[in-house]
Amino acid sequence: MEIDIRALETYNKLAHDGAQSAVKSLSQLTGISTRVEVTDVSLMSPSDLQYEFIGNEYAGVSIDLSGEIRGETVLAFDEQARTAVTDVLVPADDPEMKKSSIKEVGNIMTSGFIDGWANHLNTKIKSSPPTYIEGTGTEVLPRSATEGDSHLLVFRSRVEASRGGVNEPVDFRILLVPDQTSLETALEPQADTSISFEKLEVFNEMTKEGAEKSAANITSMTGIETSVNISRLSLVPLEDIPAEVGTKRYVGTVMEFEGKLGGYLVILFDQPSGRAVVDSLVPMETEGEWGEMEQGALQELGNIMTSGFIDGWANVLNAEIKHSPPKFVADIGSSIMSPIIAQIAQTDDHAFLLDSSIETDSDRVFTCQMLALPRRDELEEALDEILVENSGNTEADPNDLF
């Protein structure tokens, strides 16, 4: 299947505008101040989407779509968001009325989300009556996101809410998972701006393999057992990328790579994870500051992780990809990303973001996020040269892949 990148950008904007319309409806109904923090369209496996929802309680609505766009839309509030909404609409302690209010709010918000798509396509998109959903994690996900192992294109919006000027710890999400047939029609190439969906799948899998090699390198150097829990490729408006990373404080490295494929790779450890890595790498007591020795340890680890991450790309593309020495960074996530976004913004307004999360299930809390931002024109050219039928054999002679 060939997909038109410009059309995908348009639909991503429609998803963003639809989310804006939805949160405006919520604000009018409840007085809760809301804003759309980030909207993207992500290529990801069902298991990766499921991992994002594991462990949290949600309530909301599910609506089936038919017509020009077919699929399923889910609007899900976490426990804090559900309480904030129902406390305003149903002050009485009546569980059934609270459930009904979530259903009604979800119906109104989802209608606003879908209307923009129908207007753009100049057609009618029919929606089923809302089905109330409630449960932990994957129990509230669209059915297509819990079945099979093929990749999904998921339009995702995340919303931040506040009441009385104080930010609520609210997790509020809108997901649209269109079925592949209607997606293929909607994204049919109209110009020379298409990318093979199958090749995007291949590249996403190559990236996941690279992240797994990086995780193995972390384990080899530090003794900390790690695994890759999420790996996805997203098309994101540049202005949304800082919000994608957030305002949490990180330490890590930034590197630029170039060759057949150029761009940036950012490796971010949250503060406790960064300290755990340094403690494992530096065989002496430190003063808890990010001094020259600590920075050097993280830079060396970043260098080895980067090599593991991009070697697979170089092998499949049969080309050398070099990277700059890692630069140590310590700041909030959005501030780390902003200079990179400024560079990419000189030529593009959207970027392909490859996002992999490395974690450990041990008692030692550990998270590492790897963010790759390849230059878009070079990525499109590189994808054009990959042969899907051979690219899965990463151990093959690279000359056989073209």
From TrEMBL:
<keyword id="KW-0145">Chemotaxis</keyword>
<dbReference type="InterPro" id="IPR050992">
    <property type="entry name" value="CheZ_family_phosphatases"/>
</dbReference>
<feature type="domain" description="CheC-like protein">
    <location>
        <begin position="293"/>
        <end position="329"/>
    </location>
</feature>
<keyword id="KW-0378">Hydrolase</keyword>
<protein>
    <submittedName>
        <fullName>Chemotaxis protein CheC</fullName>
    </submittedName>
</protein>
<dbReference type="Pfam" id="PF04509">
    <property type="entry name" value="CheC"/>
</dbReference>
<feature type="domain" description="CheC-like protein">
    <location>
        <begin position="97"/>
        <end position="131"/>
    </location>
</feature>
<dbReference type="GO" id="GO:0006935">
    <property type="term" value="P:chemotaxis"/>
</dbReference>
<dbReference type="InterPro" id="IPR028976">
    <property type="entry name" value="CheC-like_sf"/>
</dbReference>
<dbReference type="GO" id="GO:0016787">
    <property type="term" value="F:hydrolase activity"/>
</dbReference>
<dbReference type="InterPro" id="IPR007597">
    <property type="entry name" value="CheC"/>
</dbReference>
